[in-house]
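Sample entry (337 residues):
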Amino acid sequence: MIQVAVVGAGYWGPNLIRNFVSCPDTKLVAVCDKDEKRLKTVLAPYPSVAAVTDFDELMARKDIDAVAIATPVNTHAPLGTAVLNAGKHLLVEKPLAASSEQAAALVKLAREKGLVLCVDHTFIYSGPVQLMKKLVDSGELGDLYYIDSVRINLGLFQHDVNVVWDLAPHDLSIMDHLVGKMPRSLAAFGTSHTGSETELEDVAYLNLDFGGGLLASFHINWLSPVKIRHFIVGGSKKSIVFNDLESVEKLKVYDRGISVAGDVESRRGALVSYRTGDVWSPHIPQSEPLQVMIRHFAECIRDNKTPLTDGESGLRVVRLLEAGQRSIKAQGGRIAF
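Predicted structure, serialized as tokens:
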């Protein structure tokens, strides 16, 4: 079994703790957090797990193979560097780091040390996204035309990152997984309505251009009175609508679209004809994405494999987040990659 420690017992840490405990391939050895009271509360159901308040003490332990970091993003780089230098495999909560420079340094260090670096882009391990990937790769959708994502709700306001860094990593990682390449450019707009000195944007719009007719747009928002989680992939043959808030039919495949006349004579008449076909909601087996990811992480350590959400994929997402921030500050100036 892979012996694991978790750093951070705040918002996301308890989810990692629960899944490491229940995973048959891992043994949770210790949890580290500065807040001793919080540690006691979180670890109450797990009396055999050590509570550690000193990170350096945790790194000195010889009975730990891997460490999962679930702390604020500005701590990911220094803590992750210490973990890798201690010879331990690393799982990092999204986003990988606070800058592309820091993310690239973590990727480089993990490669030099021969250690597994995995980023907790949990949605990639969900049934709907895995099926979307199969449909895209099989050519079922045809050529990709657009990706349209909406991830909005009321709160939860963060104190260290804006809405882009908080919410966009989910959908940018899904897009990166489906498309498999960086866009050629990005433009973004965002604004803050809290009047805080930090001016962290709470509403933002990102537009990505991949060339070849493929565009992607993302709306992220902490101020919406309703919660929406829509991710749409439009293709020349079929389209997919992923609604994460649906309890049963999370994914629907639409055989609807347009057909464009290809010959000159047809073009003199109707240029576009409409196609209306079936709507298909495929069966998706129920599984907890976080548990799937943790088992995959353990497998990669055991078999020396590259994770599905490796450091390189985490770096690409950070590059997009960073470019989005630069574009917002430049009033929507387009950033080329």
